[in-house]
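FAQ: What does the model actually see?

It sees only this:
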Amino acid sequence: MRAVLVVGILVVCILFGLDIVTTTLALSCGASELNVFMAGVVEHPGMHTAVKGMVLLFVALTTSFLETRIEGSGLYLLAVIIGFYAFAIAHNLSVILLLVPQPL
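And it is asked to produce this:
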């Protein structure tokens, strides 16, 4: 496996962790989950972590497989996933900032 693919998968792993943390914080501040498929899952951080772990395994296997078939295709998929989760984390942080009471 190419080193850059491994780094990309590690970045996705970090982003998944940040997504779990920021989603949990946002929900504790009164936000609601926008993804109807994950609404019941995110209420339980352990289950949320397990689901993200399974998705991470799927992403790692899929991108590795794609990379063996067409060079660069796994990296393109990782780039899309990284962009998506970077946006999701930014959104979660913006929600948290709006919902946390600001000092006067």
